[in-house]
Amino acid sequence: MPALKTPVDVATAVWKPVTLRAAAALAFGALSIFWPAPSASTVAYCLALFLIVSAKAVWDFAKAPVIPDGVRGLLVAPAAVWLLAAVALVISPETVTIGIAGGLAFLLAGALELAGWFRSRRDLVPARDLAITGVVSLGTGVGLLGGLGLGLDAHGFFGIAGGGAIITGVFLLIAGLGYRYDARSTDARR
Predict the structure, then answer these.
(1) From its phi and psi, is residue 135 left (phi > 0), alpha (psi between -120 and 50) or beta?
(2) Ramachandran sector of residue 58 (left: φ over 0; alpha: ψ -120 to 50; beta: rest)
(3) What ranges do the domains of the chain cover?
(4) Closest among 91, 94, 106 to 51, alpha carbons compared
(5) Which of 153, 155, 179, 175 lies closest to 35 in space, CA to CA?
(6) Nearest alpha-carbon partner for 159 in 91, 93, 101, 102
(7) Across the chain, where does the E strand assignment appear?
(8) pLDDT score, position 122
(9) Contact indicator for 108, 85 with CB cutoff of 8 Å
(10) Residue ranges in the chain modelled with pLDDT below 70
């Protein structure tokens, strides 16, 4: 099966937001691994910052001119959800808020990303990324909400959110670098 090449205009438009989201996810994931005993407020503030940067990246991706109008709204919505969750985390930096606000934000964002993938999977090559990030977000949301029932502490919630972030970050870094290569490969031929 031949490799699927991203059109130059699409790759040029999306590589920066995809790579920014990957960097934010990997940084958050690394914090979740190496921070030995964070307080609930530390986890809440780190998660809020991660959600804000992710929202910015998804917003930039959604407003790219190559993104179909029917998908744009489905991508702007997760950005809005993440911003609302970040506000809740900053206002109430407690373990319960991490589980509820974080869990609901990841669940809703994952469902919206999957809807975006479903709607644009034939028209937009980067839509394949939405399938992976959507599933990982759903899993992260379920894990965070499930952690409430298990009575997890802040470190447990940090691990769940960080684990999802690492998976997302690695996948999106590979995608972002691929888009950068596709955008650059035609520049070199000119």
Answers:
(1) alpha
(2) alpha
(3) 27-185
(4) 106
(5) 155
(6) 102
(7) none
(8) 81
(9) no
(10) 1-4, 185-190
